[in-house]
Every structure is written in structure tokens, then in C-alpha cells.
From TrEMBL:
Keywords recorded for this protein, A-Z: Signal
Organism: Chryseobacterium edaphi
Domain of life per record: Bacteria
Protein name: DUF4848 domain-containing protein
Signal peptide (UniProt feature, chain positions): 1-22
Amino acid sequence: MRKIRILKIALLGIFAFTISCSDELLNTTVDNSAIVEGTLKNGRLFFPNKESLNATFKELKSKNHKYVDQYVKEKGIESLVPIINENSEQQVIELLKKRKTNYLAKNASRVSGEISPVLDQDIYEDLDDLEEIVGDETFAAMLNGSAEIQVANNIYKYTDVGLFVTEEQNYNNLETYLEVRQISSNLLEPTEPQFREDFLAGKIGGELQTLQNTNNKINYFISQSIYPTDETNPVGSSPATLYPGGGYSGGSTVGGSTGGGSTSTPAVEPSFASIVEGLKVGDIRKPLLGNIFGKTWETDDKYESKRRVKVKFYSQNLYLVYAIGCKVKHQYKGWTGIWRGENADQLGIGVNSIKWTFSHPVNMSSPAGVPKQAYWFGSNAYFSSASGITFSFSQNQNIPSLPFASQLDGVIQFVVDQSGLTEQQLDKLFWENAWKQANQFLEGQNKKLNRVAFIVDSYNASYVKYYDFSQVENNQDVIERIFDWGIATPQFTYTFGGGTGNGVAVTSYNWNFSKPTAVNVNMYGIAKKNGGWHGAKLIID
């Protein structure tokens, strides 16, 4: 089997955006010469430094699941979530049943009465739960069966109450810490709700913290506070009330609904547009456990007893790595009962819009030197005049910094003289102004805008909207759109005008895509199989 080489990552360029992290465990100077391949150590994937982990994660993230499976097998890791194919279904079931049975037997003293045998049906549900907790499937494959990975001398252990970090020589004390507090150390067996809520109460999200009564030797991380202790959200309140990502959000199942009064018209062929228009708005699964490390929103269309189209948006901060993206899968329920990937005749993903909102201090004047409208297509740019009626053309212009700028066919930027905009106002601004003008610029150039970022700045907030009309592929089981991934946090500085601003007013803001003020999603997944089209819309307003 061909060895997978990670060292080539060292030659990659520096990120186009600024990364920052104040946590001591990660805040080190990048040294590409230190990048080496991971090895197996005590059943865990081991990296001598975070740069090596980052390089491996980026390499695997850019590949398909077969490549990831090959890497895992080469390293000898028993993955937290094994890659499932037609030939491995039964093996995966037996592996997970054994893992769960061993854990239950080890902790039998906590359970009154006889332990029930682990059934295949339990494993089917557990696999979906694992995908929800560690939303990024590539990173989940890098974790071992105990949801652990080692970087330098630190072991990182993921649980359903958060991430625990301790030095290798203190690992036994971590096990004792979890056992005393009755926190499950195995993601196949959830922590009982009462113990989970007691532990999470008052925990601060977004930063690494040292736990009390551990001699400063055990650290803890959770993406955001789940059960804050204040008068507005007292401990003991409903999880779904305390955390908006918890529970389920019911969606309409009436065909043809576009949700939220959207005026968008996807740039696709009329026949295909009518198919998309007829898709149901799926019931959205926003599980509480799945939001321990960020957002994981899912829906699906089970169009046959053994086939489904699964649509997913995720924004995960796992401390060691983060990933933001959306995905569509076509899956088949094999003879064992496990859902696995199956090629569809055609598989498509469409993003009517994903919107990130970033609040900023009120600024009643437009950024000096920044045009009201700007359009970038590669190195070509069009900037509006002061009146906003005419445009000037420029070549060799730098596109504004966005984590996913290299994936875009165009970036459109508007500066508006008003306060916060509604979704309907942003839609109207894009479709009736920006979209029409952009296509006029490209008329006769034989170019098509498939993926576009629309940036709008108002007096008190900036909006980033992503549109994707492009993707229909033949004989695929998964399509993924990754907006950003890496190490530390997806934080960068956006400069309005792409650096053209030359005035004294504020022309740039720091944006962190893992911590926007709000996120709105309007996307769909669609598959053609056995002559028919199937799929669902995922809409979060």
C-alpha cells in the first residue's frame, strides 16, 4: 500500500488570514521544518507538535473518505468513527459492540441489576450520535476508540461534556476524575443527564480552563457555555431553552417552500430549478450533544426504506482544530442496518445562501476611500463612482481576504447607509442589484458565477453571504463545501475595498467565523437514483 506523505504540507503558503490563539497549549511559533508524520503511541495517534497535526488534518481534509481510511489503516488506529463501506459493515458493528460491551463491563459497579446485551440497533443509533458530537468526520477518524489523540506530552480526550487535556503521566488521574464525577469516558455510552448538567453548569465556553481540585494538571474546553449560571438562564432549566441548538426544530414538509420569504432565484437550468423548488423543507435535527463543540445541523430525506439523502451544516471548534462547511450524502442501509455511502446517479448541493452576521460598533459614516459597490472576479475588479451609477475597471487587484476566497468565482461588496438589514433586504439587494450587475460585467466573457461571496457593511453590522449554485456530480456519494478549516480559530481581518481604502475612518474589522453574532443557512441536497430525484432543504432562519 502506498505510503501517504504529509511532509509536502510544509511547502504550503502562509494562510491568507490572521490566526490568533491565546491558549498556552497552542500558542507557539509555526516551524514548518518541524512537521513530521503522525505515529501510533499507546493506541493513540501521536504528533510531536501542533504543526504536524495541522498539516495532517489539512491533507486528509482535502481528500476523500477512501484516502482517510487508507491513512487510518496504515497508522493502525482503531478510529472513533470507522469508515464504513460495503465490505466493512459487519466488522464495524462487531467492533463497536465490543467497545461498548467492554466499557459497560468495566463500569458495572455503577449499574444496578444485570447489564443488557448490546444490540445491533444500539450501534446504528450510536453512529449517528458520534457524528453529531464530533461534527467533523475527518478529525473523528483521527481519534481513537476512546476519542483521544496526543500532541507532544498532552493527551486530548473528547467526551459528551467537553474536552479534557492532561499530561501523559497524569492520564490515570484524569480517568479517576471522570469516574468520580460519573462522566462517561466512552462516547458510545452517554453521561446520565443529571451528572452532565451538574458538571456543565457555569462552565465558561470558548477558552481553555484549569479544573479545580486537579492540582492544576487537568484542563478543560467547551466551545460555548451550555448551562450558564445567571438569573436569566438558571441551572435546571430545560436544555432546549438554555441552549438554542438543543432539541429539534420542526420544518415544514410542504413541497415548494423556500423558507423565510426568500426572493432568491438560483442560477440553474429551469428544469433543475423546478426540481429544487419542489423539495420539502426538512425537519432539522439540532442535537444538544452535537453542539458541545459548536453547531451541527442536519436533515434528511428517507425516500426509500433503505436509501436517504442527508444534508448537513457544521461549524465546529474542537480546540485542536476547527472546521466550517456543509455536506450532502447519499446513503444506503446495508444488510447489517448501518447507513453507508452509495453512489447516486447524480448528486447535487446548492447553497441559496449561508449568512454570517458580525456586529460592530456603530459607525454612521462609510469607510473613507471605499466605493459603495465593488466587484472582484479573479484579479479583475470594478469599483463604483461616488454617485454609484458608473464603474471603473481595474486589473491586478487583490481580492479581499476571506478564508474561502480561493474557492470563489467572485466577491461582491456593498456599503450601505443604514442600520441592520433583514434577510429579505439582503436578498433583494443581492438578486435585484448585485447579481444583475455582476452578470452584466461578465457578459460576453464566457464565464459563469457558480460560487459568490456577498459582503455588506451597514452602520452597526457586517454580513457575509455565500451562494453556491454549481455542484452536480455523477456517480458520487458525498459532496462537501468547506469554508474554512485549520488550527486555532478561524479569525482574520477583512479590509473593505480590498485594501483600497485610504481614509482615516475604520476600513477593516476582525471577524471570527466560529463566533459570529448569528448564522443563517438556506441550502439543499439532491440526488438522482433509479430515475427519480430526491432530497431536502435545510433552512435555519
